[in-house]
From TrEMBL, chains A, B:
UniProt GO molecular function: DNA binding; DNA-binding transcription factor activity
InterPro entries xref list: DNA-bd_dom_put_sf, MerR-type_HTH_dom, MerR_fam
Highest taxon above the source species: Bacteria
Pfam families referenced in this protein's UniProt entry, alphabetically: MerR_1
The entry's keywords: DNA-binding
SMART domains in the cross-refs: HTH_MERR
Protein name (database record): DNA-binding transcriptional regulator, MerR family
Domain HTH merR-type: 1-58
Amino acid sequence: MTVRALYHYDEIGLLSASERTPAGHRRYTERDLRRLYRVRALRALGLSLEEIAGVLDGAADDPESMRDLLAEQLRRLDEHAELIGVLRQRIRGLLRQAGDSSGLDPDRLMTTLELMSVFETYFTEEQRERLAERRDALGGEGVEAAKGAWAGLVEEGLRLVETGVPAEDERARDLVRRWDALAGGFHPEGPEGERTRAAARRMWQDNSEEIGRSLPWPAERMAALVTYLERARQAG
Amino acid sequence: MTVRALYHYDEIGLLSASERTPAGHRRYTERDLRRLYRVRALRALGLSLEEIAGVLDGAADDPESMRDLLAEQLRRLDEHAELIGVLRQRIRGLLRQAGDSSGLDPDRLMTTLELMSVFETYFTEEQRERLAERRDALGGEGVEAAKGAWAGLVEEGLRLVETGVPAEDERARDLVRRWDALAGGFHPEGPEGERTRAAARRMWQDNSEEIGRSLPWPAERMAALVTYLERARQAG
DNA sequence: GGTTGAACCCTACGCGGCGGGAGGTCGTAG
DNA sequence: CTACGACCTCCCGCCGCGTAGGGTTCAACC
């Protein structure tokens, strides 16, 4: 604990010494000290200074506020922990990819990174939520078939992009539909639809690994494809 | 992704459009875009912009830097996750205390908070490490005895403080020794020493609950005692 | 040609929680 | 009297942008 923090608490009105010496030096009374202990303890639990001020000044009026704040903080910590878990998964996937096949391949790692970014912006928030919901309901047998489906679809799409088929073409619309299905969108029911959705779930689940392995196309071509699909989608 | 972020990347030299129109508008080339994808992906993994700049500009020279950075980031995330786990434990303990005994008692909660702060500063880093090491080697039978030991010791210490015994007194030195033993310091061997150390470990383990239950003394008196012990310790 | 609205530009201030430094005053000991 | 530390106020800095303000440019329409 440094004096600078005390000055700061004074500045924002959270805790100021209730007395001063004639020379202007701060004199913290016993009550100030008790308040300081509370502030420090709540800070150590991760609360913001504003929240601390709120609960310390309003605790007399509303004895539940303290518990509410702690519960809220617990919720935030849970959320935060989950996010960290996801990040750890992704990084571990990347490190596995970097470590296994004949030493590390920075270009491939970079391509994976670019694809992560492209896919992150391509999938809508809603789609990702749906994928997360049903994530666990999936076995591992459809994965190879899924890779094949993705690969075929992307190859076909890239051919369309390069031969310059306009986005209003019927083949483009069909491609969009199948792409959406793989991406977890609204596909007609039936076994094939389920298989493709499952593939998309699995693929998103640990996306870095799967995207890196199963989609070895240059990122700029992928970006072009995504742009093309977006235009085709808007064209109906 | 907003334009403001792009301006920012430009400002700090992380990513700038390599062309401009005659009117001054930024023109991002395909290569710029690929670099942007990489930046975004690495940001999403939690790396700082400075680190990203380092690895993107030095990746050609040193192909291992990328992997090192990811490994480093994984380590940091692990650390962070552990810290969050500790905080969650503490808050859960506080909420349990607030919820069980006949509704919540904000004063008691506050007292617990103050004590947490006092103890946090009182225990040295070394002591806490030692406690963490042997934390799991403890059963649950010594807890009640431990509470009694703490209670008796603190009562005795508070009496000494209030009757004004000087810190150089032999009784004060004895108190410091026993206090240190409870706090995980160096106590003479034997069954009693082990029991007191075990009590200290258990007490620190979920400190909020135990401190709140077993030490129902006002925080300012505890603070006075801690100060007194500190002086006695320094007096040898 | 004029006008309009969207898109782009630059500049500057703001956040949270202090760290760190400059430059001055106060307290105490030799 | 001097020295040294502790304390004071004021101000700039960090990170990763968000937000606001005021000025240009672009494409389209009248």
